## 1
Amino acid sequence: ADLARSLASSGGRDRPNFYDSTVQRYAEMPIHRLTIHELLSSGSQITNERLISMAQHVQREMCTRLARRLLDIQTLPYIVVENPNIQKVHSLYRTAFEKLVAFPKVVNISQDQEFLSTLKDLVQEGVQVVPLLARGTYESSLKVSAKRLDCNKFLADMVMSRISRRVIAEQFIALHTPRPGYVGVICKELSVLKVLERVSPEVANTCERTYGVSPKIEIEGDMAITCSYIPTHLEYILFELLKNAMRAVCEKHLMRTNTLPPIRVLLARGPSDISIRISDQGGGGPKKHLKNVF
């Protein structure tokens, strides 16, 4: 409500009353780009000194990324800003930002433990964000056309930023409780085959609940492939790709036959990377839409 009233009282012009100089200052700071290699390197041979240094880095990165998202909300049309769900997102982000900015710089292991506890609480509170964003933009689209709202970039930035913040926070949290074979949340030798074997039955069940049947998944290639990756992220990626492939196959073939062509997954290893190719006979999509695929 405070967000909507602030914008309403000024017609959206009196921004300084809404976004104070602290948010603006952090939003203008550069963001350190995340890579799996860097997370692996920084997470090896953990000492108290390294945990303290990482806590300082995490605090700074989280504040900068939250500040940018707070400023993004400023650019939204008023019809979106006044939505209770979007206001709740703003409230969650503002509270998290204020807690992190107010937390003293970590200089000893005792403060590190306090910061760890604060971060755990913020991660748990942030679980609500994606459903709130989805409901807020949907409800707003009922009042104004989605094309006029043009919230796609806003939503993409919000979701991508949330993923990066969760990786930063969960990596830091996980480094305090080491697990064999892991560096934080990253599995050093993640079996792609095992991930596929976990995900495939879930995708098949999802497909069968909708269409009554599901195409078979055939896996071939280098079954021993492993990679350093976050297991939940690879599971989500493969789940979504396989789900899309199954839907396309069912919608193309079920009206003509009860025999569905299989979905083939090819695993291949290169000199410095791996490839996972998912092939289906679902008919593909129009070329004009290819630029919007990723």
## 2
Amino acid sequence: MVPPPPPHPKPLEVFDMASALAPTNIAVVKYWGKDAARGGNTPINSSASLTLDPNDLRAETVMVASPELRSDELYLNGRKVDVKGDGTHAKRLRRCLATMRRRCAKAKHPPRSSRATSSEELSRWGVRVVSRNTFPTAAGLASSAAGYAALVRCASELYGVRDTPSFSLSATAREGSGSACRSLDGGLVAWRKGCRADRADSKAEQLFDERHWPDLRCVIIVASAAEKETPSTEGMQRSVATSPFLTHRAEAVAEPRLLDLQKAFRQRNFERFGELTMRDSNSFHATCLDTFPPIFYLNEVSKRAITCVHAFNAAQKRTRAAYTFDAGPNAVVFCENEAAADAFAALAATCFLGADLSRRGLRGLTNAPEKLARACRANPPSDALLEACGDKRGGATMMYLTRVGGGAAAPLADSARDALVDASDGTPQARGREAWQR
């Protein structure tokens, strides 16, 4: 079913337009819990993530600013979203836009292509934000991180705002979604919790770019594309209030682990990197279970995916695949190289997707049907390995094959921009359902 077109979007005559994309990032050392004393979406521990290839999992955003818009508008995945209410994301969107507008208003001149006569005038125009995700939203794959990173990158183009010693796009993205600051850069990125009262030092730092470990691959098993029952913000608040393990994990586990993982990544030591990644995921979900009432982000398919990773590594006689789960049931499995990824993907497809693993049978179930079908033909899992993975089959809705990639970028290709907004009048375009929505 195709979503209905947005309700009577107003065609515009005078407007500026900008576009950008941002990839998702998957935390390998996770943060859980906000620092209420400092505020501003600051975390109680530092974290680190790997940015995934934007060709596979990304948010795409177009922003239109016009004096004809009397209020701001947001269209997400083909539907209009309320930005005036008290919802968490409505407030965060307004906060990000307010920060970028204040910065714009201080500039001497608007961007050269702007139709505004001054930066101050441009900052007062209403904006229409049109965005989509190419992967499941609010399902534990950091869709908010990609979305807010794309928003801030896009706003930086629209308003001509850049990083300076006194202003950080990373800190602005953090105001929308904490982990969004990590999606602005590629490769391995740390989000430093910082300690300053003004929160200016709570921002992302690229540790290694996407070229440092080019062999690394990633297989994602989508156990559910539905929105999670407990949103991350609500879950963090509950954990902070009720979990004794949370503070111990933040201070004694996560911070030292980040240093260990950084060293393993520098050395391209997958055995060590993989163990640290899996242990950190386990400790995060232990915190969720320690919360009262407990939070269950993993489901039965998630647990089977964990079993499959350990069975695969046992068959390989060393760690060649490593799972991690954010606040959701979907398994993100990093693999040592393409050969390991192909072998694990064949196992995962056999266990979770179904009987027909041909290119035709896999269409709509993966972002790379030909590649996955070829991997399945070349790497049929042994009966012993399948037995070690358990006798249940199916349960996943999709699989993604991807790798570590670069960060947010602008502008979008014309075809991607035009799929979101009519460039002649700034109106949002009706879209068919994404593969993950079907």
